[in-house]
Amino acid sequence: MSLLLAYLDAIALTERLHRQFLEIVKVELENNSMRDVNNVQAMILFNVGDHDMTIGELTLRGCYLGSNVSYNVKKLVEHGYLSQQRSLHDRRSIRVHLTEKGAGVRNLVLQMVERHLDQLPQSPLDEQALAQATATFRRLDRFWSQSLTAGNRMTRLSPAA
Questions:
Q1: Residue 151: Cβ-neighbour burial (10 angstroms; 0-12, 13-18, 19+)
Q2: What confidence tens digit (pLDDT) does each residue in 106-117 have?
Q3: Is the Cβ–Cβ distance between 106 and 45 less than 8 Å?
Q4: What is the predicted pLDDT for the residue at 38?
Q5: d(CA 45, CA 97)
């Protein structure tokens, strides 16, 4: 396989894996008759966890494919999954945390993850294989981050057209 094909395959696989995981979360929600929260919103709740965080921190913590985090947070507040409060230090910043209802969704996702962990020993995926995959994804993340930084530098250095 050429480097080009391997690179493009890694990009496509990364996106496919993320979409597939979100589909698993969607099925979990449906199996538990949760109709007023979607899979992306469930992952937002999962990532908030026991923390108080800003929308910016939340955006950095997770990948919410094709979604607007601010819009989803607004909907989660409206449906009683999150509560929000203006920061005492920066009145422009809003901090969110889980309500009891939100903690219920987080626990549902956590239970799903724990079931997956119980099933992993029967799969070809062991801790070492997952660690190697994670290390590769981290290197790819650093490569893309460096490419963005270099690309921004090149754009600033380019003469105006």
A1: exposed
A2: 999 999 999 999
A3: yes
A4: 95
A5: 9
- What tokens does 7 get? 């690179």
Give CA–CA dist 101/117, Å, rounded.
25
Residue closest to 43 by CA, chosen among 27, 60, 63: 63
Q: What is the pLDDT of residue 126?
A: 92
Region of 66 (left: φ > 0; alpha: ψ -120 to 50; beta: rest) is left
Does the domain formed by 3-131 have CATH 1.10.510.10?
no
142, 144, 148, 154: CA torsion to nearest 10: 100
Q: Could you say which residues of the chain have pLDDT below 70?
A: 65-66, 153-161
From CA 71, how far away is CA 109, in angstroms rounded?
A: 21
Angle at 48 between CA 45 and CA 49, to 5 degrees: 90
CA of 87: how far to CAs of 24, 94, 100, 157, in Å?
A: 35, 6, 21, 38
The SS3 of residue 97 is strand
Provide the pLDDT for residue 161.
47
Residue in 42, 47, 10 with CA at minimum distance from that of residue 23: 42
State residue 129's pLDDT score.
94
